[in-house]
């Protein structure tokens, strides 16, 4: 394994992706796909009246068949640190992915980022229509909390309540949704956001959901407060590195490899660290954040078991899509 505890070894240095990390990432993606497909079946659950076919088709279109599944991977691997595996962890991870997928469907709408391409195929409002895309997002958002509140996710009602509260805080007004609102405001601002304002926006819009993915593992595993705090610092640093890497890809990436339109940040006057610092300084900050993430894992005291999460930090910085 590449993880040595001596820094992230990224930047200009050549790097071979760790095989165990790739295997675990692929396994998490497969488990998440299977869980989502089951949850989004045609048969109504107790308390539901019916599942309209076109809406369900749109929800499955948005949620299935694409993406790296990084957020569920982080949840599953964080839970694994405490010996928690199986249906409980998979359902919790799927709930996070439902929130992420709903946010993409809504972000792509003409009233938001107005994108036509996502994961190499038409966005939901292009494949269906705007109203259906909105409803598909609404359905996934609501269903995520249904999944977490269900005793099938965890026998302990207190654990379920903690999961629901944590995801609501990360994805709502003071987290992802609030970050999207700040992002839209920044596009129309008469002057660029400061670095502090940009970092806050990005921590809300992107970082909060990545952080909560790690927190889910700590909640499911009953982690002590110091260990949970160290994992949270890892999640914060990883989320910030992910956003910078995403901005770099938008500036330099190939549309075919990205599976979505490139160069849109500059077109829409998006608040990014690239705009404030330039590409070279942004890369330096990304690499420092990866280092900080790996150092935080060392502070958990969990030793080599955190190696795959260290690889995840490197992955977000070096990914090509």
UniProtKB/TrEMBL annotation:
What this protein needs as a cofactor is: Mg(2+)
Gene Ontology molecular functions: metal ion binding; prenyltransferase activity
Q: Name one Pfam family in it.
A: polyprenyl_synt
What's in the keyword line of the UniProt record? Isoprene biosynthesis, Magnesium, Metal-binding, Transferase
Q: Which GO terms describe its cellular component?
A: cytoplasm
A single Gene Ontology biological process assigned to it is: terpenoid biosynthetic process
Can you tell me which family this protein belongs to? Answer: Belongs to the FPP/GGPP synthase family.
Q: Any idea what this protein is called?
A: Probable farnesyl diphosphate synthase
Which source organism does the UniProt entry give?
Answer: Methylosinus sporium
